[in-house]
Amino acid sequence: MKKWLYRIGFVFLILFAVLLLVAAWSETDTATMSSYKNNPELPTIKPEWPGTPVDQKDRFMNDEFPFLPSSIDLLKWKFGNHPFKEAKENDTARLEVKDPSGFFASTADGILWLGHASFFIRINGVNILTDPIFGKPPVVQRFVEVPSPLEHIQKVDYVMLSHDHRDHMDEATLRDIAAKFPNATFLAGLRSDDVLGKWKTPTNPMQVSGWFQEFRLNDPRIKMYFVPVRHWSRRGLFDTNWRLWGGFVLQTEKTTIYFGGDSGYGRHYQEAAELFPIIDYFIVGIGAYEPRWFMEANHNNPADAVKGFLDSGARYLIPMHYGTFDLSDEPPSQPLRQLMEEAERNGITDKVRALAINGSIVIE
Prior knowledge:
This protein is an alpha/beta fold. It folds into 2 domains: about 1-30; about 30-360, Ribonuclease Z/Hydroxyacylglutathione hydrolase-like (Metallo-beta-lactamase, Chain A), CATH 3.60.15.10. About 25% of the residues lie in helices and about 20% in strands. It has helices at about 1-25, 70-80, 85-90, 100-105, 170-180, 195-200, 270-275, 290-295, 300-310, 335-345, and strands at about 35, 50-55, 110-115, 120-125, 125-130, 140, 160, 185-190, 205-210, 215, 225, 245-250, 255-260, 280-285, 315-320, 325, 360. The strands form 4 sheets. A 7-stranded mixed β-sheet has the order 9-8-7-5-4-3-17, with helices on one face. A 6-stranded mixed β-sheet has the order 10-11-12-13-14-15, covered by helices on one side. Strands 1-2 form a two-stranded antiparallel ribbon. Strand 12 (about 245-250) and strand 13 form a beta hairpin. Helix 7 packs parallel to helix 9 (about 300-310) and helix 9 packs across helix 10. The protein is globular. The N and C termini lie far apart (about 60 Å). The mean pLDDT is about 95.
């Protein structure tokens, strides 16, 4: 029996390697800026912004750091040296998981972390979910098991989706949300409607946006904007950078929240500060950053997150994207520990609002 299991595993490994090599063969080109795209039905908020850049193959691209993923680099990482391996294996620390029922029983404005990049934001009478994933994405291990919060949630007005990677745009979770909340509006980057349209119900409104555009919500309680981040997109082997990635800015009369999705460091944090001079809460990823040669283009490390926070001029930093899924080489407790060290070095310890899973803060 064991021999057959080993053989089956070996066959799957070979097939996986072949698929990666096929994808690598298709990635032999480079990205050269060719034109711009936006949603003509949405207003652009940055003066003289021509639109989101696309390359010669009509793929979206970062204008500051053009990037195409390399399957060869992925294989090099997966089968290369792992200097953090022993430390990671010995790191048994796990995030605390709280009971969220108290938060959901309240009506006060607040931000609840559901793990990874998933938040429930209640502000000015509006209920928002960000990058919800309540199960387990394919081929990824969870560090902590978290019960689905859907039984506690009574209303969802908006679902914000930063990009199409499976640990941020989860089909099963989104189908469940759409079924329970058939009037919730789905908001995402350009071309994301090709998958979201299959998962939502016919009554769920949906809007897709280019960078520096404002969603048309017709909701006097809140405004929402889609802004650039340094990342990429892909769900299959041959749809690299087809769907646009980004971050969100939420704005009420009293409060502005920046949600950074997945991102490496770049000038986009300063650009956000220029357009939104008073950012109250800066929600930013701090994990999945080792090895740096592979991850730096797409994921902040804690030092990058602090730099981005300082660039933004925000009041408070809320870390995310760490300790939930096993996505990279660093030990699971390292991101938060290093973040607090960086915060102390920069004199901003009092501005960090690190949460337990299902932990929350009241919006001031």
